[in-house]
Amino acid sequence: MSLGNESQLQLYFRACPLQTTPEKKTTYLSKPFHGWAMVDSGATSIFIHERIVKEFKIPTIKMDKPKKLRVIDGREIDSGVVDKYVQLEIEIFGHSEILSAYVVNTGHNDLVLGMSWLKCHNPAIEWKKGWVTFNSEYCRDNCLHHAPQVLAGKTPDLELKAVGLLPDIYKMYADVFTEGEMTELPPHRPFDISIDLKPGAVPRHGPIYSVSVKEDEELKKNINNQLAAGHIRPSKSPMASPVIFVKKKNGKLRMCIDYRKLNDMTVKNAYPLPLVKDLLITLRKAKIFTKLDLKWGYNLVRIKEGDEWKAAFKTKYGLFEPLVMQFGLANAPAVFMHFMNEIFRDLLGISVVVYMDNILIFSETEEDHIEHVKEVLKRLKDNKLYCAMEKCTFHVTEIDYLGLIIAPGVVKVDPAKVTKAVDWDTPENVTNIQSFIGFLNFYGDFIEGFRNIAKPLYGLTKKDVPWKWTEKENEAFLKLKEALRTAPVLIQPDPEKQYFLECDASDYATGAVLSQVGPDGKMHPIGFLSKSMNEHERRYTIHNKELLAVIRAFKLWRHLLEGTEKPVIVLSDHKNLEGWKTNIELRGRVARWQETLSHYNFRIFHIPGRKNGKADILSRLRKLRPEGGGESSALLPENLFIQAITPDHDLERLIQDAYIADEYSQKVIKALEENEKVKNWEWDDGLLRYKGKIWIPNNKAVRKLVIESRHDNVAAGHPGQFRTYELLNRKYVWASMKKSVNDYVANCESCIRNKDVVREFCRIPAPAPGIRGVRPSTGARARTCSENAGIPAESRILRDSRGSGIPLCKYLLSADTINTIIRE
User: For residues 217 and 794, which has the higher predicted lDDT (pLDDT)?
Assistant: First the structure.
């Protein structure tokens, strides 16, 4: 075995360590990494630097027979005994393979690809131009995903990176991947960020923070660079924010501006960021992916002309105001997201998904993908937006995006994130716990029973709870790390297939698993739900707790389960849930839940116990299904359990939007988010609740729509003031709600137009002298003069002035008879 130093060229690679064998290539023990591989015909085999193995914690495999390492002239190296190797999944611009590499000290090279590799792949090398072409029969059958040509170079300089990794078919857009610093000022656009201050806001300025020697060097460098690029200018602003420094992952310093005081007085932009779950659903049929990462991010957007002084910052070297958008400004994410969405508006969800500066292009075929990528690069070029080449990936069938690994039809946890969780140190205070839980919350869909497992840790984050790390908390901490390490592969939902929803409840939490049958004919999870109960919910009956689990699951996956052609199969180990729609009297909470569930097409089946796995569910369902289809006698006719959009869902979105502009609601929400106890209030799934009812903010338009939903509804039939209020009060509440309802009903055009004509009623005879009056008993109805019927005998007659009274009579008497009796 020899390691040479002649006939060399370098190729950029990305790699991910495998566990032990190629058959387990989806099981990773450490995070992916990238580097430069030296192609060396003077080396006999494949070698990896021991520094890389140690740095990325790559698992090694012991060799049965260690080998001697020799240099090209045959001499043995003093420390040249090779006794271990690693297995990697490696990709060199679409050329991917699984290989074994011996662990040695390879000098300045991360990876050495020797003769064994060259003989296997037999690449064509054009030394003059530095091209390596993978076009052998072996590569075409086993390694290639797209264009087989790669540019190589002897040194990994930045310019070489940018050109060397860009496929030849996209060379006309090479300037989109320009290396170096941003040297010109972006143009003004309609999407420039404006900094609108709240009425009555007074300019404020913060202190200057002390800096260390290293921070001072970075401060001077940053200011000089930004002045030279025209990104900042000297200022005389009455408002100024201080500068702080944070450490990057690579240990370098990043200068940031503390805009907290400015943000407090800024009118917020409510433009939404997309939900990651919604983005993933659009990738269901994708087969090929390309990822682009924008360079310089927020600095690509200008600050609106005339607003620059508001974002001024001060340092020991003076007062400056930025001309480009800065990190830390309250509305920066909303403005940037709006900017990106407008650029790719007609491509979103079709061939592109965008989250901030992360662009993912997806296609079903290679031919379509090339056109899709070209269109995106063209728009970036036209808008003078640039990408960081080292963070871009082209034409792959599996890609890391937003902390997830996405492949055709499936989603996995990024191995790098798994490593981060596994290596997490034992928490020493509440802040550590909050950071750990916050990190894992994003991966809640991958962890079955997440809330149940994490319950002891959540308990430590409550106010006035003393810090006490016991065996119970430590066990929960270790279980969560293990749960993420062994997290299952989630499949992408397919609306054409049937959904299976398993629901369960304990004494303090609810859980659910949404699944579908995958291409392999087995059941695979789409996502997991785990949510704790509040003190009121913990007092529910067992039946209601189990039904709460079903309600929560349908609400979470409403975007998938509402309007399905095939009924959703709900599986529960609580037998009584099968008859939840039967002819029983439903009141209060359960009646409201019934209303919610009536908008879904589903059937509930009882699964006794949890011994059998998900793969056994289908066979068990066939056994359990009774003759005649298993339909139960429903409280409502089956055709009322429709597949339509619930009006209340749209209302709830409008209510959530209205909270943003309502100052009172914002105060309560802020207090609840900071875990402060606010009597009678709770923050539940984006809705503010007062005594369990949805709080409607001070917004006339929204309140009018809420009243319409209960008064103008066809089923309600335009009830009167009292009935309308009663219907609303079941679910909603706001200040002066009764007055709002009365005003609305009194002015309802339909009610006025269709009001019944008042009929002439029979007058009660005037009381005789000495008689105070006659009052019908409760429940007696007034009769018209034309009705030839008597007055109910149980009508009560008030005592006369002499204290005498008339006894009750069992018979039905006419009005004339009663009048005669009274006078006598």
Answer: 217
